[in-house]
Design a protein that fits this description.
Helix content: 25-40%
Strand content: 5-15%
Structural class: alpha+beta
Order of helices and strands: HEE
Strand order of the largest sheet: 1-2
Radius of gyration: 13 Å
Shape: flat
Largest sheet: 2 strands, antiparallel
Length: 42
């Protein structure tokens, strides 16, 4: 059985939840930030 946990994250003033999530997903797709699709944390 698989379980999913949705962690809350801060949203900037004037930013919608959808825009906040889009920004995070877009960031994760930047080739310089990933190694084979895995996020690189400095």
């Amino acid at each position: 059985m698989a379980t999913t946990y949705c962690k809350t994250h801060p949203i900037s003033k004037g930013e919608t939840t959808a825009l906040s999530m889009k920004d995070r997903f877009d960031y994760g797709q930047i080739p310089d930030k990933t190694r084979g699709g895995d996020l690189i944390v400095a």
